[in-house]
Each structure stands twice: as C-alpha cells, then as structure tokens.
Structure to design on (1076 residues):
C-alpha cells in the first residue's frame, strides 16, 4: 500500500492498544498538528484508524502571568521586601518597599490588595506591617496561586486545585477555553495494512511541463496544501461605486426608452437659468449660490431665442400671461458659470441647439456633474451628479408623470411614492417626490419634478408637453448603501480601503 | 425655503377650529406647509415653497386653512375707507430707489401676539419678495406720532418721500438714543452695517419726512419717534423699493393680515410728479382657463360645476362660459394678495391641489421611444473597463481644486509648454481657498489620493477618467473642456516600463498605434518621460514622477503615471 508521507508516519506511530492523542502523535512524527489531523481523518475514511473526540478544558497563561512567573506575584514580592526591611517587627514605609520590590504601575495596587486579602499583614498610615497571625494556612512561601501558576507552566494544569484556578482566572492571569482533543487507535485493518507493509508515495510540489509530458503525473502524490489558510490580499481594480450606480441608473433609463444628453459644464447663465424662467434676481442666482467664472461673456447665443426668453421674463407668455417684475439684462444672461443643474442640457436639447429640432415623442436623460456653492458637509458637496430626465409628448398629464417616476424608483427598491405639490419657477404643476427608505421605511425626499411651464417651452419653440424630474445620484447611492459621509467615496479625501472593499452594484 | 413660526392656539382661534395639534399638522401638510419642529415657546415652525408669500403670517395661513376647511369660499376683498393722507414723492428721491407705496390701518388691536406676527411678516417679506430689502422695504409707524403737512385742501395731510444728504438731517433711529445723520447710522447702527450696502454710492439717501422732520430712513431703519407698541391703534405702512408692483403686492399681503386682526384699511394717495396712485390697490385680476387644459394636465374627466367648486375652495371665484363647440372656459378672479399667478396654468395647479393630486391613479405614458447612450459616454465606459481590467482602482475626484495643487505641487508653471499647464477657469467668488479653479489635468488629483492613503496597502494602482478644462477664447464659453484618462502605479518597483506596458495594452484594445517620443515635463524625471502619440496625434504624457513631486506629496516610493485625452481613443 502506498500512502502520503504524513499518513504513513501516523499509521506507524499509532497503536492498536493505546489510545493516543493527535498532539502526542504530531510531536512524535514531527509534523504540523493540522496536517496530522487531516491525515487521521483520511485514514479513518480508509478504515485504518478510528478517531475519537472529547472536549477538554485548556488553560493558558496570559502575558501578565508569564511575567509574574519570572518575577513572582506582586504581593509576594511586597511581602519579601517587607520582611527584608524588618516590617515583621514594626512597620516599614510603603514608598521604600514599592521600590525595593520593583513594583511598577498597576502592580502597586495589585500587590496591596492581594497582600491584605491573603492575610500577609496590613497597611496603616502608609506603613506596611507584616502579620501572618491571620490563620494557620497563611504561608507566603507556599502560596497556592504561585504554585498553581508554576504547575500550569509545567503543563500540569490538570493537577491544579479548582479554587486556585478560579482565583487566577478572576485576576486575569489565565485564559480558560474548551478544546476538542482527538485520539486515534489502529483498527484491525490498520494493523493488517502495517503488517503487509506501507510505503510512502512520492509527493511533488508543483505540476510541471516535464511531469505532464513524461506521464510521471500518474505515479505521484501532490504535496498537500493548507487549503483553509488565508491567501495573500489581491486588490483587483474596480469601477468606482458612484460610477457603478450611475451606470445602473443609465441602464434603467435606456431600458425605459431614454436617450443620453451631453453638453458643457461651463455655460452661459442664459442656458442655465434664463431659459428656465428663473428671474434674474432669484435668490438662487446670487454669487453665493452659483459659481461664476472669470471669463468674458458668451457672445454666441441664438439672438431670436434670447429675445423670446427676455420677452417671457418681462411680459409673460400667452394672452393671459404676466411676466416677472424683476430686472433682466443680456449681460447677466451671457455671464459664464459652472452649471448648477443639468437642466441647461435639457434647454439646449429642447431648443434644437444640441441635436436639431425635436419632434415628439422623445425621452432624454443625463447623469452628469453639477456645481453648487453650498456648505461642504457629510451629505453636501460643491459638486455632485444630477440625474435629469424628461419626456416630450403631445399631451402629458400629472398621471403620466406619476406613472413614469413610480416605474423608475421601483427599480431601486423605492416604493409607495408620494407626490407633494411643490413650487419651482420652471414647472407647474410641480412635485417633490417622497419615497419609503428601502431599509428604514422612513419617508424621504427622493426628487423634484413637474411639467415645464409654457414660459419655458414657448420661447424654446416647443408646442407640446414636457415633463421633467431631477435628483442627486449621491442621494440614491447613500440610500442604497447607507453611506453616512459622501466624502469617503467622492473626492481626493476618499478612503482607498473603503473603495476596494465596497460591495458591487448589480 | 421660508420658515414661519406660528402659535397653534392663535392659529386655531383665527381659523375657528378646535382641531388637535396632529390634525392641524396634517391639514397644514396638505396645504404644502411642512412641520419642521417647535420653537422654545411651543410655536410650530412651518416650512413652505416660496410661491404663496401670502402665507408668511399666522393670519395668512389661517385664511388658507379656512378655505381648506370649507369655512370660506371664493374671493374676499376687504373694504377700504377714503384717503386722508398722501405721500408726496419729491424730486430729490434717489433715482436708484424711485418707488413708494403706503396704506393706513386704523383701530387695529395688536396685542403681544399681533405685534410679533406683524414683525415676523415684515421680516419674511423682506427676505423673499423684498430681496433682503433691496427690491422692497417695509416701514410701519404709529400714525398718532406723525404730524401731516397741510396739502391739497384743508383736510389732507401729507408726508414726503425724498432724498437726504448722507450728512444732512438728524433723527433718533430705533434701538438708539442719540440723534444721528444717515451716514452716522450706517457706521454705528447694527442694521446700518447689514443694509448699508443697498444705499452705498447714492448721492442722497432715501428718507421720509413729516411736518416735524425725518422719521424713516428706508431701507435701513425707522425713527424711534414713530415706533409701534402693543397699544398702538393706528398705523402708517410705507414701502419703498425698485419696483412699484413688488411693493404694492407686499403692501396687499400686510393689509390682508391686519384686516384679519380687525383693522380698518384706509387708502393713501401716492403722488408722483406725473401720476397719482390710490393705494393699497386691492383690485382683483382675471385669467381665462380652458376646461380642456384642466382635464389634460391633471389627467381626469371632471364636470364644469365641480371645477368651479374646487376654484372657490382655493379662494378664487369663477364663472363658466361656453365658447365655440361646447368648449368650456372659466373666467377666474384672483384676489390681490396672490403673487404667484402668472399664467392660466397656475390656476390649473390650484384646481389640482384642491382636487388632491395624491388621489390620482398613476399611469405609464403611452408613448414609445428608443433609448440609448451618448457616444462619448460609451467610449468613456469602454476605456474604464480596460483600465479596471489592467487592475486599476477607478477613482472619482472633484473637478474643482486650486492652483497650488495643479501647478506648484506638481513642479510646473501654468505658462509651461506641458500637459496640465494651462490657464484654469477661475471661480469669481470661491467658497473656500481649497476650491478656486477647475482642474486643468487629472494627475494632481491622483497624487492627492495617494497622499491621503499612504496608510493603505500597496501597490496602489489608481486611475480616473474625468473632466479637465482650460480657458480658451476660441470656445464660445471661453472654456475648453475635455475628458482625460490618467493612471498612476505606486509600488516599490514602479518604473516607466510599467506605465508604458499598460498604455500599450490600452492602445491595442482600441486599435491605436502608440509612439512615445521623449519629452521634458517638470513633473517627471528627465529622460524618463515621453509624449503619448496615438495614431500620430500627441494626446498626453507618460513617465516616472519626479522625486520632488513625490516628496511634496509625502510619498516614500516610486510612482509611474500617465495622462492623455479620452478622445485620443475615439
């Protein structure tokens, strides 16, 4: 019979009459006990050995205990120092004794409390007085705890008195744990196999080209690995979690028939705000809310559109329409800003500026960065991704809007959408969207939506209905993942460990 | 969004209801007023969108609730008494703030609550319609303390809106006890510091005088002489600003609030050089709304009399007219406190709110379109896949950064002829010193991530595909934007070859020929940097980062890196 090396050694070391533990056998065959255990189970499976298991308590010394083993328990050191200083006759000053006993840090307190507990004497007015008269059992030279420590160190934990063991445990000097002890005995088949002769099969470390071409692989055993051991950490590359989320959103929208938009990050306020019927003195249009750029004004704006937008602001749209009572100048419209929303793209597309005149029906979206001069905190960044989408059709109602968004949010586990009537300068009716948090069940704001006003659409030359909505991608990500600080993932303060270990979106 | 503090007991009294707090809150939510919390005095803090500015007071909210409860229906307009007082606009009025309006309210029973509510309404109107007093500012005075100058005929009394030299007439401002000139007020008074910028640069400051002298310095502060107390019975309300319509509407909102407290509104003549206005102007306006538009926008079939009912419950009046082919239209009358109705569509929204939007059944729109990704976004995704396949951790950094990160710490100068060296688009009024420009290149962002993660396991192979921009006057926006691909390899044995090997793999994946002629770039070690040339076009740079740059970023191991334009792979 040919068996792997460890199995052969184990078989030879085992006995049919004596039950021997794996630990003893591992020592004897000079092999790792994990490997021997595995070999034992394999031999058992082959019917050559029986393996028995029983539970046993193991006791191990802590680091502190190891130190006391060398130096003596603190209370014993204090006692000896006290005796040396003659404190069995009168008292000796504690300060001196602490030094003489070499007690440091917490050892002082440990020494004093155990000194008293064990009846070695007492402490009075800073003096240590040795007095062993407390009882006949008090014997510092044969201290049961010290003896127990020594016994455990010598591997004779089994002989230690239970009381002393409990005491050491409560002092944090030993760790007690349950272990499984396995012992093996040769079976009759095992004895027979040994008598017939067992040989060591040749083992090789790796599959080599020679091994394969020569056919030698047929006669070899491969060295066993510890297949349970941890392997080296490999950090494979991974798409950024926010990109994954963006792509998930894009997939959903493309599936719902939306085309992706594209356009400039730095754009004229005309496209960013004026087309959206945001009055030029709107509070969100101050320098504190948007990022103006130090570049000359944008001259290339479609003049006829510019005039129509100005007229909408000043006079309103339609027979019964009123305009704003706010100043309007082309200087403001031409100022170049970093866009505060991607609705600037929607305006460029709806006006025909981006891809030519659009005929209904159309669906468009973008998941792109926008910039807000806001406070930087765990949930707000100066720049973030906005999901923007709109549907253009001959006739759209609030119910169509509700149906579209219900469908979209359900893809992300956000159900029971509620529509809270809201106000935006550019949509009417407008709704804040609230949904149930997938984890906590709380009602949370998940977006802003509405049907574009005629003051927005008419100047753009659109004479059908367009409904639109927007939300922050980061908000969706935080909902899906429960991130608490968005700065951990977005930006140069990101934690590489978090990015490497975060679960993928699917 | 505006937040108004409202005493719930006061609200209950004005509405005439005994609803408990919870019911009240849910009724308010249905109106669009969200309960945000309570003040220390137990007042509700209610937040709402800034369209219905007539709800900036407990009186205004109570009015809306009475409509909602069905206690009131249709348009209400308070009666007014004939004018006794006039405001004469003098030619010395600063041209920057030419408009004034006003009203008198008599027999008002203010009490502590009433005065608090009035002050809050004044502040909230300043913050919203008044554009922090720049567009419109409100002054409220004790009429009993004013002495009108005889005008027109014997009975009329007049006050003047005029200009005052900054160092001209003196008056005692509110919360002060010394006579000061307007210029002194700007220097010494807290509100002078806050609102002084509005009058900055004016030759003469706005001022209101009665027969005794200057009593108001709008938009900064009133005089102490006419201060309103809880026992004040008769009020003069004046408003000045840059737009007549805006201050007239603000005045209407204040008059409606005081009317709800039992005040009697008395008109005031506002006399300009070329025209005479009778204020407050409480006339209603009308809009024509088609029945068909209501049905298509809300997505319901509804009977004409039901629409009229909903309009009346929204505080509007309507008459139905049949035009043409059984086509219904509504002539809708809108009360003078509404500032949000610009278009018939705004009336449709009111109908929808009264109907209850949340009672509508969602439906998926029956229109079919073909979806698809933008070409650039597909290219970017393919490039990102290639990078990730090569083991790069994909990053996402801010587009905003500062010049020190882009240039100084990278050892380059914006005037150099090198990748990354361009004039960056600069923010006019940056939020913080850390974020002042849009990045001109991506490698500085990657080095910052390396710098912030030196405690994390190496190797660190990082990449990003993202936006970079530069000032370029050939572009319509004067900003040239492009997407770039950047990668760094931070490992104990990182070398130029490691970076180039990965570049080669990317070029092959996109079917591009790659050449790397040597170049000088101050961020890289001399002799270990090359231009990236894809299909004959120079699109970027590759090399070993200069030790100067590494040490600057607290890195203690070599880094090889590259950056090139994404469109090089197109």
């Amino acid at each position: 019979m040919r068996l792997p090396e460890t199995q052969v050694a184990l078989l030879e070391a085992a006995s049919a009459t004596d039950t021997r533990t794996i630990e003893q056998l591992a020592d004897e065959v000079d092999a790792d006990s994990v490997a021997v255990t595995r070999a034992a189970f394999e031999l058992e499976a082959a019917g050559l050995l029986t393996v028995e298991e029983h539970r046993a308590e193991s006791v191990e010394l802590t680091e502190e205990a190891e130190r006391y083993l060398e130096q003596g328990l603190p209370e014993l050191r204090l006692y000896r120092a006290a005796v040396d200083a003659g404190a069995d006759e009168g008292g000796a000053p504690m300060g001196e004794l602490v030094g003489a006993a070499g007690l440091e840090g917490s050892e002082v307190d440990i020494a004093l409390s155990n000194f008293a507990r064990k009846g070695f004497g007492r402490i009075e007015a800073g003096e240590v007085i040795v007095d062993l008269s407390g009882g006949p059992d008090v014997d510092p030279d044969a201290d049961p705890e010290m003896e127990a420590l020594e016994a455990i160190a010598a591997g004779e934990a089994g002989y230690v008195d239970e009381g002393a063991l409990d005491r050491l445990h409560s002092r944090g000097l030993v760790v007690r744990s349950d272990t499984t002890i396995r012992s093996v005995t040769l079976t009759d088949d095992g004895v027979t196999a040994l008598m017939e002769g067992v040989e060591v099969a040749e083992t090789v470390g790796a599959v080599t080209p020679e091994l394969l071409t020569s056919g030698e692989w047929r006669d070899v055993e491969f060295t066993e690995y510890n297949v349970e051991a941890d392997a080296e950490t490999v950090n494979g590359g991974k798409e950024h979690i926010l990109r994954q989320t963006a792509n998930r959103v894009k997939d959903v929208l493309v599936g719902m028939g939306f085309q992706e938009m594209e356009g400039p990050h730095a754009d004229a306020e005309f496209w960013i705000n004026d087309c959206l019927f945001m009055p030029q003195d709107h509070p969100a249009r101050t320098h504190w809310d948007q990022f103006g750029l130090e570049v000359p004004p944008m001259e290339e704006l479609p003049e006829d559109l510019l005039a129509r937008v100005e007229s909408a602001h000043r006079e309103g749209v339609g027979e019964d329409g009123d305009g704003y009572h706010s100043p309007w100048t082309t200087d403001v419209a031409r100022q170049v800003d970093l866009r505060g929303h991607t609705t600037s793209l929607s305006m460029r597309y709806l006006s025909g500026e981006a891809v030519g005149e659009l005929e209904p029906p159309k669906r468009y979206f973008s998941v792109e960065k926008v910039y807000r001069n806001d406070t930087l905190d765990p949930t707000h960044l100066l720049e973030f991704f906005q999901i923007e989408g709109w549907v253009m059709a001959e006739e759209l109602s609030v119910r169509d809007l509700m149906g579209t968004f219900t469908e979209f949010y359900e893809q992300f586990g956000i159900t029971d959408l509620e529509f809270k009537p809201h106000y935006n300068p550019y949509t009417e009716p407008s709704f804040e969207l609230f949904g149930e948090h997938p984890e906590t069940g709380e009602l949370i704001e998940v977006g802003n939506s509405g049907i574009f006003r005629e003051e927005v659409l008419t100047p753009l030359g659109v004479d059908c209905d367009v409904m639109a909505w927007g939300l922050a991608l980061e908000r969706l990500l935080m909902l899906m993942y429960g991130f608490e600080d968005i700065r951990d993932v977005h930006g140069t303060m990101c934690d590489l460990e978090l990015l490497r270990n975060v679960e993928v979106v699917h | 969004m505006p937040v108004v503090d409202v005493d719930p007991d006061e609200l209950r009294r004005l509405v005439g209801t005994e609803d408990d707090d919870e019911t009240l809150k849910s009724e308010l939510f249905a109106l669009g007023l969200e309960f945000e919390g309570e003040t220390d005095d137990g007042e509700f803090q209610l937040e709402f969108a800034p369209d219905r500015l007539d709800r900036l007071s407990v009186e205004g909210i109570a009015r809306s609730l009475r409509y909602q409860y069905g206690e009131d229906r249709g348009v209400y307009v308070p009666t007014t008494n004939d004018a006794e007082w006039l405001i004469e606009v003098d030619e010395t009025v600063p041209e920057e703030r030419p408009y004034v309006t006003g009203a008198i309210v008599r027999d008002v029973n203010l009490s502590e609550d009433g005065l608090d509510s009035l002050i809050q309404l004044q502040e909230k109107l300043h913050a919203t319609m008044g554009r922090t007093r720049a567009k419109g500012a409100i002054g409220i005075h004790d009429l009993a303390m004013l002495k009108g100058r005889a005008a027109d005929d014997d009975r009329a009394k007049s006050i003047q809106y005029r200009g005052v030299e900054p160092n001209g007439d003196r008056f005692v401002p509110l919360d002060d006890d010394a006579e000061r000139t307007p210029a002194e007020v700007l220097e010494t008074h807290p509100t002078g510091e806050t609102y002084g910028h509005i009058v900055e640069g004016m030759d003469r400051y706005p001022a209101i005088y009665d027969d005794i002298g200057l009593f108001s310095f709008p938009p900064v502060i009133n005089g102490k002489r006419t201060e309103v107390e809880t026992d004040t019975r008769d009020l003069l309300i004046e408003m000045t600003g840059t737009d007549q319509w805006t201050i007239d509407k603000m005045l209407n909102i204040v008059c409606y609030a005081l009317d709800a407290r039992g005040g009697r509104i008395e008109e005031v003549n506002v006399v300009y050089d070329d025209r005479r206005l009778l204020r407050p102007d409480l006339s209603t306006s009308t809009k024509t709304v088609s029945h068909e538009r209501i049905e298509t926008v809300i997505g319901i079939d509804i009977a004409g009399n039901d629409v009229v009912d909903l309009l009346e419950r929204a505080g509007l009046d309507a008459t139905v007219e049949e035009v043409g082919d059984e086509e219904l239209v509504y002539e809708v009358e809108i009360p003078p406190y509404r500032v949000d109705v610009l278009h018939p569509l705004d009336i449709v929204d009111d109908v929808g709110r009264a109907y209850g939007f949340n009672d509508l059944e969602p439906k998926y729109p029956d229109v079919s379109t073909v979806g698809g990704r933008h070409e650039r976004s597909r290219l970017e995704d393919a490039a990102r896949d290639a990078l990730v396949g090569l083991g790069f951790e994909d990053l996402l950094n801010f587009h905003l950064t500062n010049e020190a990160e882009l240039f100084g710490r990278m050892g380059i100068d914006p005037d150099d002829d090198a990748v990354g060296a361009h004039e960056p688009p600069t923010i006019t009024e940056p939020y913080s010193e850390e974020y002042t420009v849009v990045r001109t290149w991506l490698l500085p962002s990657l080095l910052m991530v390396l710098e912030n993660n030196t405690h994390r396991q190496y190797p660190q192979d990082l990449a990003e595909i993202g936006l970079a921009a530069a000032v370029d006057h050939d572009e319509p926006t004067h900003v040239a934007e492009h997407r770039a691909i950047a990668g760094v390899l931070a490992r104990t044995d990182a070398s130029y070859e490691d970076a180039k090997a990965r570049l080669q793999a990317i070029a092959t994946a996109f079917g591009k020929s790659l050449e790397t002629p040597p170049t000088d770039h101050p961020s890289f070690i001399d002799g270990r940097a090359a231009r990236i040339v894809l299909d004959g076009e120079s699109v970027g740079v590759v090399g070993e980062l200069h030790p100067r740059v590494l040490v600057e970023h607290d890195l203690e191991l070599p880094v090889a890196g590259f950056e090139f334009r994404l469109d090089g792979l197109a």
